[in-house]
Amino acid sequence: MKRQTILVLLVLLGFGYAAFQAVIYYTKGMDYQSLSSKSSPDNRYLITEFLSMTEVSQAPYGLHLVLSTAPVKLPEDGQVIFAGYCDHFFYEWYSNQQISISCDGYDEHQLMSRSVKAYGIDIHFN
Asked: Which is nearest to 49 in space by CA: 62, 36, 61?
């Protein structure tokens, strides 16, 4: 009888922990809005553009570009290659090994993070 009670408690704890992790996963998704994505010409990589909806990010309430090998739900699921604030923002693949990012209407204080290379891909900032 005592063994069954312990087993039931362990199963309930396991379900409780799984439910808790699911709530955390889905509420984290509310911190960002996915705006667009573009695949590399060979479809090996994906750039996803996010808008932060919270103060807890590299660029609070700003734009984030994430490079990944598969679709991502959150910026932390890939590599953030740009985070900042722009009046006019544009990004594109030049080739499988080059990305171009354009950010008009900014000053240096509005660029929070910028990579020059990720996954062996050169990132050019205009």
From this structure: 36
- Distance separating alpha carbons of residues 78 and 47, to the nearest angstrom: 9
Amino acid letter for position 11: V
Residue 68 resides in a domain: yes
Please compute the mean of the pLDDT values over residues 32-61 and round it to a whole number: 87
Read off the pLDDT band of 92 (50, 70, 90).
Answer: very high
Determine, yes or no, domain membership for 110: yes
Angstrom distance (rounded) from CA 17 to CA 24: 11
- Domain count of the chain? 1
| Mean per-residue pLDDT, 49-69 | 84
Residue 17 lies in a domain: no
Identity at 3, one-letter amino acid code: R
Residue 12 lies in a domain: no
Contacts of 39 (CB under 8 A, 6+ apart): 45, 46, 93
Domain that holds residue 71: 31-125
Q: How confident is the model at residue 115 (pLDDT cuts 50, 70, 90)?
A: confident
